[in-house]
Amino acid sequence: MRPLLRTCLRSPALSYRPPAHTTSTEGLQVTEGESKAIAEILHELSTNSHVQVRSSTELAAQVTKAASEEDEKRIEDGRGPLRRRTDYRAVGRAPRSLTLTPWQVIHAIGLGAASARQGAGRGLAEHWGSLRYNQALEANRGRYLQLSSEGRDLLRFYKATQSGEIGTGFASLLAENIVRSRYPDHSVSVIPADIALKAGWTLSSSGNGPRPEPLQRRPHFFVEAWRPGQPSKVLLLASKGTHSSAHQVHKQLSTASAHVESVHIGPYGTVPYLLIGTEIPPAEALALHALETPGMSLLRTPGETSGADLDLVLEQDNRMADVVRPTDRGETTIPGFQVLPDSYAWFSVVLARTEAATLMAFTGGGKPTAQYLTKEQGRRHFLHDTRTDTAKLRDAEHRIHDIDFVGTDHIYRLNGTRVEAFSGLKRSLYVHLHHGRVNEYRREVHALRGQWPDRSTSGQWNVVSIRGDGTVMAIRLLEE
Question: For residue 112, what are the contacts with CB-CB under 8 A and spacing of at least 6?
Fold first, then answer.
């Protein structure tokens, strides 16, 4: 196991050794003190807890104030104010809290990073990077999630990485919850924005100096509400995370307003968005802070009433990173990314196929993933199975909650005890995507909407999470 993962899975909070005896924790036979600690970890991962959601006009005012203070400093040092969206407000009918298990958060983190290919050392550590948070979250006496002692100890190792990754996990879950509640007859997909944008634009510098600042700040996700055969609805999501105070959240959300300003779908400044900041204090419950501009952008191509054909294979596009902005004297062109109505069908295909690539990467990557990506999106990185023990990729099959799943597994030691983690996709959905049938995948997964089991344990598996996209992530203690 890689040193970082081994470090992340060491828990001083659970290092006590009670007298050796046989006991049972949620049906799991335990004979050693260390194993009992692992059983408790797995039990905690499967237990429902709450996360506060805060959204108010006061929050919007504090973010506006933080943006003004930042721009004043930027003007003083000669950089000028940031381009931002300023039409945010409190989230309408926002939930007061989310109820979920820590394992669901880990599932969301893992799925969000599945196709990112971050770093040259791709493979085992990257595919299973979310497992570093197995012991980072726990519930307090009121069943509200907070950092565990393990999570607090890890701050000195990768504080910024932890807050960013945990923040994106919670943000994607909250955004999905908000959009699903508003469009209950739609399915909802949360799609990594950078991967999607790379199908049409070059995001990195060409070597001629740094790119304009608006091109460096981008939203983190596109949230798509869709029905088979119908035009999709889309909004932007920018997420942040911090281990500091609410004041830092305000500053981060003010910066997030610049991230959503760089992408425009339709006319300038009309695409709706969500700004979500996750506050992860060292010794208190986590809180999600959210603002929005309401609505959804409808990807309806002029003259068309049906949705795009999502089975179309995309070739790499090379679009100008320009946005048309109205002015008092007409209009001007500024740096940014814009999708105009005549490109809505193309962008619908981009979103659906980027999601398909993410789902297939979650099952193990390789050529089934590569078929959905363009050159700039990273097709060549998935043309060959480069992960450790490639013979074992996508050959793991498990029946969980009476559903057959196909994917890949990883056996490792958690505090010295062997455990198995499995990530996969419902077999019939996997077959559709394996053969390039995105339309069929969406038809079937939409028909299954609301039917997925929500139980967090299953038979031989200590912890289970199944999402509406048909993916599963499960973990269990293995016999020595």
Answer: 168, 169, 172, 190, 192, 221, 358
DSSP-derived secondary structure letter, 135? T
Q: Alpha helix locations (H) across 155-243?
A: 155-182, 193-197, 213-216
Question: Please, which contacts does 209-212 make with residues 24 or more away whose CB atoms are closer than 8 Å?
Answer: 211/321, 211/335, 212/335
Q: How far apart are CA 231 and CA 186, in angstroms?
A: 11
Please name which of 157, 162, 156 lies closest in space to residue 129, comparing C-alpha atoms.
162
Give mean pLDDT in consecutive 10-residue pieces for the chain, a chain of 480 residues.
32 30 37 61 95 98 98 96 97 96 96 67 66 90 90 67 92 98 98 97 78 93 97 98 94 98 97 98 94 96 89 95 94 97 97 97 91 93 59 74 96 91 97 98 97 94 98 91
Give the β-pairing of 187-192 and 297-298: unpaired
Retrieve residue 326's tokens: 């109205």
What are the DSSP calls for 212-227, one per residue? PHHHH---SEEEEEE-
What is the distance between the alpha carbons of residues 202 and 318, in angstroms, rounded to a whole number?
7
pTM for the model: 0.89
